[in-house]
Every structure is written in C-alpha cells, then in structure tokens.
Amino acid sequence: MSNSALDEIIEFHWMMDMLQTVDVGIVVLNSNFEIKVWNGFMEAHSGMLPSDVRGKTLFSLFPYISEEWFKRKVKAVFELRIRAFVTWEQRPYLFKFRNFRPITGTELFMYQNISFSALVSATGEVDHVCMMVYDMTDAASAKKQLLALQVQQNEMQQN
Q1: Which run of H or E residues covers position 45?
Q2: 41-55: pLDDT as tens digits
C-alpha cells in the first residue's frame, strides 16, 4: 500500500470519528426517506443504535413526524439543491428527545434547530439529504424566561 493510500485511509478514519463524536445530530436520508447515517449524537439521544435504524424509514421509527409536512420541506432540497431550515420557534422539535439536563434544565424536551442539505453524488445527482440536528434547549429556555420576565414587568408597571 502506498503512503498516499494509507494517508487517505487514516484521514477517512478520523473524519468518520469526528462525525460520530460531534455535538450535532447527523442523519442522512435517501430519496425514500430511509436512514443511511445515524451518528453518535442521534444514538445517545434516541437510544437507537445505527444498526437498528439503518435502512428503515424515518416515519416508521418516528410516527409522530408528519410525513406530509416533512416530505414537502425536503422536496426543495432534493429538487433545487438548496438548504432548508426549521427553527425551534417554528417547531420546538423534530425528534422528541428528552432534555438531557433534567436537574439544571427546566424543559422536558430538547428544543431543536434543523438544517437540511443536499448531498450530490459522484454522478451529479442528489439522491441523499443530510439533516443536522442542533440542541437549542438552553437558548430556547433563556428566551422563554426573558419573555416571562418581560410579561411580569409589564404587569407590575400596569398596577
């Protein structure tokens, strides 16, 4: 094996390790919405191993996700090769993961921002979409507390 081939294998290995350990959920779906990649973040928060979810549809594993809404959201990503987003203000969560800081956190579920990106294959076709799931619980909780304080302050000023 040449040094360049070995270097490529080593680089591929650490890149895969990075995808597994990054503090962001990464899910890759094909055009049939079957899960192809399920990283460590998703495993930790869902309790489902990659081997348990790979090849299954997102909707069979998470029946509370509106199939019609989700497909409409992702259609433009597949067809137009654009990014799409869902913020916690629009929809508090896509995946109903419990808040993993139950003692210090006040929220029952994890608030999430989601971004969708087209993955272009070697043939130039978009046959997969990458979904990134960001934990926004701390930001959402802080904003909710700030709004509650503003309401409380307005009520006190009116009295």
Answers
A1: helix 40-46
A2: 999 999 999 999 999
pTM: 0.84
DSSP code per residue over 57-114: BHHHH-TTS-HHHHHHHHHHHHHH---EEE-TTT-S-SS-PBPS-TTT---SB--EEE
Range of the domain at 139: 24-158
| Four-residue CA torsion sign, 91, 95, 100, 103 | positive
Q: Is residue 131 in a domain?
A: yes
- CATH number of the domain residue 88 falls in: 3.30.450.20
Assigned domain for 18 exists: no
Distance of CA 34 to the CA centre of its chain: 15
Q: Examine residue 123 and state whether it is found in any structural domain, yes or no.
A: yes
Residue 118: how many other CB atoms lie within 10 Å: 20
Condensed to tens digits (0 to 9), the pLDDT of residues 122-139 reads: 999 999 999 999 999 988
Number of domains in the chain: 1
Distance CA 46, CA 40 (A): 10
Q: Which residues contact 105 (CB under 8 A, 6 or more apart)?
A: 99, 137, 138, 141
Q: Is residue 34 part of a domain?
A: yes
Length of the chain, in residues: 159
